[in-house]
Amino acid sequence: MMSELGIGSGTTPVVDLARAGTHDIISSRSFGSDPQLVAELGRVAVDALLEVGSMPIIKHIPGYGRVDVDPHHDLPVVRATTDEMMDTDFLPFIRLKDSPWAMVAHLIFTQIDPDLPASISPRVCAFIRTVLDYDGVLITDCLTMDALSAPWPTRVRAALDAGYDIALHSQGDLDASFAAARAAGPVSDATLERVARAQRRLGDRRVDVKTLHAEVEQIFEENGFAPGGAGYQGEKPNA
After folding, report:
1. 17, 24, 116, 169: most buried by Cβ count inside 10 Å?
2. Which of 16, 113, 141, 165 is catalytic?
């Protein structure tokens, strides 16, 4: 449906883990706490989106699963070691490293860079590229979020100087957007190549959305996940 409307991406799937204590802003969108399952479901989402020509963007690399505050308003800090996270938080991103695009998180990993949030950290960018072995397009989460400080154009420049391909600036008025664009400057040749490589992977299959939606609803009903289904345990719809 998005492809048919000319919308290139829904910036999904979220492949962060949802564990006890993970803030709702992440856990409500996560596939779960099991990194293997999250990776498998993430793979289904990535492949399906590519097939119908919608660009998947796995997020939020290297992982928001341990955050207990909302990065829209505060800066999360993760103190776990990289060894702890290799088989947990990082695993879905490693398994999905062939995904064409990934969105970078706003949080501090004290064991990688104790001073800078991931989205403006050269150390974290290098970690993603080398240790996690990700070579697709790296776009930041929106740089106007309050996890970051400094004027918006300064944040844009810091993200690009850190090594990320694209600095996402999705709020503010037209003047703010112009200021962000001026701070960004020209796109690098390496970024253009990554973007082109990603575009070549898009398929052109078109599907009947209404039919698919009906099939999904039937599956939900048959398995007790929707009103009207046998064994449904959720809230009953109003009469």
Report:
1. 17
2. 141
- Measuring CA to CA, how many Å separate 168 from each of 68, 157, 172, 206? 23, 11, 12, 29
SS3 104: strand
Instruction: Say which of 72, 87, 133, 161 is annotated catalytic.
Output: 72
Prediction pTM value:
0.87
Residue 150 falls inside a structural domain: yes
Q: Which CATH number do you get for residue 69? A: 3.20.20.300
- How many residues appear in the chain? 239
Query: Residue 72 catalytic?
Result: yes
Interval 104-122: pLDDT, tens: 999 999 999 999 999 999 9
Domain that holds residue 76: 24-222
State pLDDT tens for residues 54-83. Answer: 999 999 999 999 999 999 999 999 999 999
Question: Could you confirm whether 106 is annotated as catalytic?
Answer: no
CA separation for the pair 30, 62 (Å, rounded): 14
Q: Output DSSP code: residue 120.
A: G
Q: Determine, yes or no, domain membership for 187.
A: yes
Is residue 95 in a domain? yes
DSSP labels for 145-188?
STTS-S-HHHHHHHHHHHT-SB-----S-HHHHHHHHHHH-SPP
| Residue 6 covered by a domain | no
E strand intervals along 57-211: 57-61, 77-78, 101-104, 108-109, 137-140
